[in-house]
Amino acid sequence: MRGYEAKAQVMADVAAVIEQARREGRDPATALRIARVTLAYVSGPEPDPEQTRALAAIDQELRQLSN
Question: How far apart are the first and last CA of the chain?
Answer without folding.
Answer: 41
